[in-house]
Automatic annotation (TrEMBL):
<keyword id="KW-0815">Transposition</keyword>
<dbReference type="InterPro" id="IPR001207">
    <property type="entry name" value="Transposase_mutator"/>
</dbReference>
<dbReference type="GO" id="GO:0006313">
    <property type="term" value="P:DNA transposition"/>
</dbReference>
<dbReference type="GO" id="GO:0004803">
    <property type="term" value="F:transposase activity"/>
</dbReference>
<protein>
    <recommendedName>
        <fullName>Mutator family transposase</fullName>
    </recommendedName>
</protein>
<keyword id="KW-0233">DNA recombination</keyword>
<dbReference type="Pfam" id="PF00872">
    <property type="entry name" value="Transposase_mut"/>
</dbReference>
<comment type="similarity">
    <text>Belongs to the transposase mutator family.</text>
</comment>
<keyword id="KW-0814">Transposable element</keyword>
<keyword id="KW-0238">DNA-binding</keyword>
<comment type="function">
    <text>Required for the transposition of the insertion element.</text>
</comment>
<dbReference type="GO" id="GO:0003677">
    <property type="term" value="F:DNA binding"/>
</dbReference>
């Protein structure tokens, strides 16, 4: 969404953003979300051609989270957890400054990721393992 908003003038941002955000709030990928996105595309194509071109290009990818109904869609549609991991890696590597070798950098990053994984597996779960297991079982039924 941020990439699209960059190509919209300040005057038209508020209404355009509010309308286009509704695309990702639709309950069903195949029907509602895609249909709503096409309505937005038709409405704003002439006013904001660059923004609409980006929307059309990334629409399928941006709606993939709707294919997982058993998982909390707010969590899997966001990149917040990934951004948090990157921020923590940057913080830890900034303390060291210059690494003597690439292997030392990889050891530091790997040790943090192992620690993060252990925390996720034991207590601090962003998405519960039960929800993931349930989603996997449903996917196996379909395949």
């Amino acid at each position: 969404m941020q990439n699209i908003v960059v190509h919209i003038p300040h005057k038209g941002k508020e209404s355009t953003v509010l309308n286009s955000k509704q695309t990702w709030n639709q309950p069903n990928q195949e029907w509602c979300a895609k249909q709503y996105a096409h309505l937005i595309i038709q409405e704003y194509r002439d006013r904001f051609p660059q923004a609409i071109a980006l929307l059309e290009e990334g629409l399928e990818d941006s709606l993939q989270f709707l294919a997982f109904p058993h998982l909390d869609q707010r969590k899997i549609s966001s990149t917040n957890s990934l951004e948090r991991i990157h921020k923590e890696i940057r913080r830890r590597t900034r303390v060291v400054g210059i690494f003597p070798t690439t292997d030392s950098y990889l050891r530091l990053v790997t040790s943090y990721l192992i620690e993060y994984t252990e925390d996720w597996m034991s207590s601090k779960k962003y998405i519960s393992s039960e929800a993931i297991t349930e989603q996997q079982a449903e996917l196996l039924k379909i395949a």
